[in-house]
């Protein structure tokens, strides 16, 4: 399974660096867990195993696993790229432009859902995400997104009595 | 034979054209609402209950049974098609189900889920009809020590979802365990890992984790490696229905899933997740195609879905016989019963015999309706996959956002969802399997709570786990479940060693 | 091909919309004008002038949500000419909702929040920055009393037996109940205080749901269980649980509950006070309004809830849910909140849950 012997050696070197960064990240998360464990107040109540025991195990486990991964990488055990999937080609380098567009759409959604309301935020998210994923018909996408958002909004608020923010469209119903 | 006669009377009450219509409406509403991500069966029942109150009791219960089973089933549809599980019990379904959908076998996955749900629901309802009193006695023997043992057994699932590298699988598991720690400590009421954010006190919902890792993470992964050269539509490969081979592989999985789901669902703290996990593990161990697991093995959908629906009927055992609500859904149902002046509990069968048997009869009817409604819908649902890729992923993001936000009307939840989505993207990038993380989030908190409860009751005596016979027996099975496959693999590996 | 796909989307959308519309149609809509009572004396103006909102600071289906929805229904069908809506803000024992009420709804006299004893405890255990002092008390509404039970085959025949063991070795008596710091835990703490046992020594096992605690008691996993009477009543009546005490004050009168065999359930259970343990605890619920609302708005909200309490529909709701009347309006309710906060925080501190 190991593909340490990839033909392109410069690529596998960046891959080793990336893998080591991952291992470091895991160790860091473990350290964060241990550090935050010290912040947990131990109530002086009747309990044999306090609220810190399991977090300590989890934090220590993460650190050990991070080290294990680092050792694995340094001894040449790279797993290589992920398995195939229909829409993604794992051999391609990361396309940061598409990822960035998608992330931006989500940030806009997050910022607008309570201000502009669910319908507008969702329609924009739909349009933005569709554009990021390769659609080149923004007007059609926006109309479609709006239709989906309106149907969901009406279904939730009228059908289920669950309130969603109306935002700028408050009063139009 | 008393139960049979009572059941016959129940059917007499329930089987009128009008009531059949209500059953259909209930199943339809339950399925449609249950399909929405983030809205699991508990919320479905809570939201749709008011609809039933305008009806007379028998019709209301029949519609209600439809909503219940429909809501339980609905979650699997989005799991399979969109990789967006609506509730914790259909997370496992997403693992194989979505792979099948991506290979063009979405219709078969939906069909095996629907038929499996029907088979499991019906067998479990029969179990509910005849076995309830016996099961309840056994169920009450389970204390925290036994539950802890059961969860240890369920952790053996990890071996089935670990993926290609042990260390990567374990990293995923421990990340899940860490996420599961967030929130108020059940036993001492202290906040843990909440960073002063009150919205985190209730913990991070496992559905948010699953949707973040599966749906959002996967969307980002696809976005980062977009194929620009391909036809964008996943074709339906082969027959739209299940092939003979798929039938052959499904039916045993349905039965095994039922055998796990019903008794564990009947345990007061059993739940629906543990049986789905166990079912997945067992199917992988027993399958003649273990290599297909992780790439869309139909047993991995059939078994857990059956387990899920069987546990839904199992939950009714303690509810009807003891008045014990053992899940969020059951707690809401208890409130519903009380609305009609029914007090579920030991005296229910004596006092309100007609209504109870009417309800049980409606469960059978609801199950049939579920199948009748959903098999034709399969053809419609798979069209979702024919949606152009940009719209499919845009739709997934909109639904994921809606489901997460509408739970608590909190943007904090959305931030959590997107952070977990980013983690999911990185995990995908580094080939770390996401399923172990979800197992960790579900089982970790349960294991901790039961472990600590057991020790609190025993006043710190660790021997409780081995001196109580049921606990000991389950732990032995768990040890075997972990050791035996390793031994088998060893001996196999030796056989064809290079 | 493209038209084909759009058709697919539309079909799914239509299905969702269709069933939603159906649900709308099924929900009984109140005829608004029908018997709107005249506005009470304290409220000089037409009130409310728009939609009245009730926040349930919990997920749908729980106690606060049920009470809020029942209240909304009774108000809309019998008292006011405006729509009454319920919305949920779940999280952290209601303190997330409390913070939202105090911040986003400041000065808004068309919003009420359902709350109760559990919130008083949660504010302390979660170190909530917003407290009840910052709200405008409107009306305390209902109470449910707690019962202390043992399994039918337990050696404990009376509360005295249980207390005697508790005094000898507090850790040997295991109590099953709901979440740590919740009503059940508070009651056990109060009992320990009253009988001279250090509340820190009590062996209280917190379960996440009422069902799990009940199973632990029925299965004899623990010595005793604590919960709301309504939740465990059926088992008590069937003789599978023995109720040792109820947390109602001595000499209380219970209102009947619909659908139960005994006319006045719980009335035959001796109170704690009657058995020499001077503790009474009601798991009460009430409504508060946001801070800084006008005096007129406050008066009108009080008048409104008062009218609601007097309707037959509300009486029917109380009977159906097994709630006991526990009314207290306005400033007196505010006074009660202060005292109750003091008592609850005091016992939580002694248990060790609050610093």
In sequence order, what are the helices and strands of chain B, one letter per element? HHHHHHHHHEEHHHHHHHHHHHH
* Strands side by side in the biggest sheet of chain B: 1-2
Please estimate the helix content of chain C: 40-55%
Q: Roughly how many Å apart are the termini of chain B?
A: 62 Å
Enumerate how many helices of chain B there are, as a single number.
Answer: 21
Q: Note poorly predicted spans of chain C.
A: 9-15, 17-41, 259-263
Q: What is the typical, i.e. mean, pLDDT of chain C?
A: 80
The radius of gyration over CA of chain B amounts to 22 Å
Query: What number of structural domains do the residues of chain B give?
Result: 1
| Radius of gyration of chain C using CA atoms only | 23 Å
> Quick one: how many beta strands of chain C?
10
Measured by residues with Cβ under 8 Å of the partner chain's Cβ, the largest interface is: A-B, 84 and 71 residues
**What's the helical proportion of residues of chain B?**
over 70%
Q: Termini separation of chain C (Å)?
A: 67 Å
- Provide the CATH topology of the largest domain in chain C: D-Maltodextrin-Binding Protein, domain 2
Poorly predicted regions of chain B: none
Largest sheet of chain B: 2 strands, antiparallel
What's the SSE pattern of chain C?
Answer: HEHEHEHEHEHEHEHEEHHEH
Provide a descriptive summary of the structure in words.
By secondary structure, chain A is mostly helical. Chain A has five helices and no strands. Chain A has helices at 9-37, 53-74, 96-112, 118-132, 138-159. In chain A, α4 packs antiparallel against α5. The radius of gyration of chain A is 24 Å and the shape is flat. By secondary structure, chain B is mainly α. Chain B has one domain (2-227, 239-495). In chain B, 74% of the residues lie in helices and 1% in strands. In chain B, β1 and β2 (191-192) form a beta hairpin. In chain B, α2 (17-35) runs antiparallel to α3, α4 packs across α6 and α5 (91-102) runs antiparallel to α6 (106-140). The longest helix of chain B is centred in the N-terminal third of the chain and has 35 residues, at 106-140. In chain B, 71% of the residues are buried. With 355 residues, chain C is an alpha/beta fold. Chain C has two domains: 52-143 and 284-347, D-Maltodextrin-Binding Protein, domain 2 (3-Layer(aba) Sandwich); 144-282, Periplasmic binding protein-like II (D-Maltodextrin-Binding Protein, domain 2, 3-Layer(aba) Sandwich). Chain C contains eleven helices and ten strands. In chain C, strands 1, 2, 3, 4, 5, 6, 7, 8, 9 and 10 form a ten-stranded mixed sheet that branches. In chain C, β1 (52-56), α2 and β2 form a beta-alpha-beta unit. The longest helix of chain C is centred in the N-terminal third of the chain and has 25 residues, at 2-26. The radius of gyration of chain C is 23 Å and the shape is globular. Chain C starts with a helix and ends with a helix. Chains A and B meet through α1, α2, α3, α4 and α5 of A and α3, α9, β2, α10 and α17 of B.
